[in-house]
């Protein structure tokens, strides 16, 4: 895949980049390794000061960074602004809390003094996706750098300008040279980098094949990985729920980032008693969404990030139709205009056991299922290889407790939209991956948990 900025709203190639040559990659690895030797000795207070400065740069220049993201992958500009603000927030969160999260923990044993100490590991490789070009990177970088590690970023090939802008932010914030670097390389080079002795661990956010490939190479070299992969999150609405709020949230949860979010609600599972009403209200909401130029402030849905994503999504929609699905709205690419536009789409009546019902639809397509009761709702929610998030709607305490304990997912949100929050751990189970980002769990993924015993 070429490393280039191609505007998804027009198809125009705006800028192309030469991938790094082997000698340039080697030089960056050397630099990262040297940087770690000094950086690991810096204090939390010093790192925190640099990270606060990064937050300040993000806040002050958010319009510039937001434009880069919208141009590269087509997210609505207003959402891009919020993304930059969230990056500033995660920097501040770890700048303020990392010292407490990684403080020595005393443990009483037969020693005169025993405790746990958290120490940095070294170079951590991050392989990141294009869908939240800034947020995905900052939620890795803020805890990783606060822990005293150094970062190497291999970003998705369609967001090179975002990748370069992020490295520049850390450099301007005052982090020593080599502490955070962007590598403009294709996916085929990742295996060599993770195999290098100096690289100690890796994290990947992206698809299952990419995650499996990275983890296989890391496993061969006995290196730790964190994987944040896909999801086919259920959005369950039971008859006791506040339906109006559920429908409004369902629309936002499906259309977030033009439907290209791992934690977007993808399968809407509704109790039969309220299904007709839910379906009608959801259709009204979808029909009211404005699809168009992502730079315009009133645009709800921009283009999909690449022509391949558009094609894959449409292919899935056709399979859903051929499996018995009924299209209530949308269901075809918007070929009357340039760019990768797909309209809001609702598909009902897919047989529950059709293989397509378990897949992840990475775009503005909602699959709507009707179930007789909570037992069937939970069974269907869990009938997918994924286990990232789940949103469930009820006003009944017993139902709520069952949903919390019986849904197989890394997160369950009751009467709310699944979202990431720096204060809460984020990650999945099953084929959605393993390990956690954010919160205290996130910063403790890439550290040596050293046991100290003194007599
Ligand atoms: P992708 O193809 O897996 O790309 C993600 C990153 O992995 C890119 O940097 C890509 O580089 C790289 N990559 C691709 N194949 C690789 C390989 N064999 N070895 C090493 N690196 C490789 O993912 P995508 O399809 O663009 O992104 C969508 C997927 O990501 C969805 O499934 C979505 O749910 C998931 N996602 C998950 C989360 C989460 O937090 N759980 C968040 C966002 C997205 P190139 O661009 O150079 O190919």
Euclidean distance between termini CA atoms: 58 Å
Identify the CATH architecture of the largest domain: 3-Layer(aba) Sandwich
Annotated CATH topology of the largest domain: Aldehyde Dehydrogenase, Chain A, domain 1
What's the CATH class of the largest domain, please?
A: Alpha Beta
Provide the structure class: alpha/beta
Q: Which spans of ≥5 residues are poorly predicted at pLDDT below 50?
A: none
| Shape summary | globular
DSSP E strands, number: 20
Could you give me the name of the CATH homologous superfamily of the largest domain?
Answer: Aldehyde Dehydrogenase, Chain A, domain 1
Strand order, main sheet: write it out.
Answer: 12-13-14-11-10-16-17
Helical region count?
14
Radius of gyration from the CA trace?
23 Å
- What molecules are bound to this protein? NADP nicotinamide-adenine-dinucleotide phosphate
Helix content: 40-55%
Mean pLDDT: 98
What is the number of independent domains?
A: 2
**Beta-strand percentage range:** 15-25%
